[in-house]
Write a structure and sequence with these properties.
281 residues, 6 helices, 5-stranded mixed β-sheet, alpha+beta
């Protein structure tokens, strides 16, 4: 309001004072060194002051405590997963109350946003870039975790929960996590770890990509370089689909959605995936 009124009054004053009728012949207005120095110095000092205040608030956000526990958050289309010390994973981020935690943020495909509204935290997960955030949870309960960056078709479904529990309850949960994951099929673990089940169902339901149910050994209609033909979904086809996903496009599905997993999924893991797909009749 102050600047609006001030600038409006000054503008009207100049319009009246330098009106053509009052000054039919243009004259040069002599410069005023003091005035020019003032309007350069004052805004510069204000900007420096605002930067200092912002920097003082920003620094603590990027300097996590040395004793903070580390958890890795991995975003992929369209799911969150979390890795704890000891190579343990979960779909829900469970943390002990009143303990500093650093969340290292990674993306497997596109840009995702790690956004916890209740904690006033929002950081990007960018492919190929190491980013992180840290906080000290001070209240027990479940808190929403959502993706704040539009990441594709099922972006709105990319949600999870941060569950804050007492330390003893967290210790018990973490200890039990190993037995919970160890019982899963190794091939399924590879698919789940790399976000494959977010786009490919295992029960025959329609999704972004073809279902895994009944895939192995079936005849698949595909397009290769614009030419339609059928191919048997054998070991070679599964491997090619993982390493070169846009080479053979299954009829009815959109190309260029899946990224190549060359260098990410090993030949050994691909064989585990093949063995698992054989069980999905």
């Amino acid at each position: 309001m102050f600047f609006l009124v001030s600038f409006t009054i000054i503008m009207i004053y100049f319009v009246v004072k330098f009106n053509r009728k009052r000054n039919p012949k243009a004259t040069q207005v002599k410069d005023n060194v003091m005035l020019e120095a003032t309007w350069i110095a004052l805004p510069t000092l204000l900007v420096i002051l605002m930067f200092y205040i912002g920097w003082e608030g920003f620094l603590p956000m990027r300097q996590d405590p040395k004793d903070a526990m580390h958890v890795k958050a991995i975003g992929r289309m369209w799911k969150w997963s979390f890795e704890y010390p000891g190579n343990k994973t979960s779909d829900t981020l469970v943390l002990p109350i009143d303990k500093a935690v650093r969340v290292d943020l990674f993306s497997k495909d596109v840009i995702h946003g790690f956004f916890v509204p209740a904690f006033r935290i929002k950081e990007d997960c960018v492919p190929g870039k190491n980013n992180y955030c840290w906080f000290i949870p001070g209240e027990l309960g479940d808190f929403d975790l959502i993706c704040s960056a539009y990441c594709g078709v099922s972006h709105s479904y990319m949600t999870s929960v941060i569950r804050i529990v007492p330390q003893d309850e967290y210790d018990k949960w973490l200890a039990a996590l190993q037995s919970k994951t160890a019982g899963k099929n190794s091939g399924y673990q590879v698919l789940d770890k790399n976000g494959c089940v977010a786009c490919h169902s295992i029960d025959g339901s329609k999704s972004v990509g073809p279902t895994f149910k009944g895939l192995f050994g079936s005849n698949v209609e595909i397009a290769t370089n614009g030419t339609d033909h059928k191919i048997t979904a054998d070991n070679s086809y599964i491997k090619s689909s993982i390493l070169e996903p846009n080479k053979d496009i299954v009829k009815g599905f959109t190309p260029n959605i899946m990224q190549s997993y060359k260098g990410i999924i090993t030949d050994k893991d691909i064989q585990l995936v093949v063995e698992y797909l054989k069980t999905l009749k």
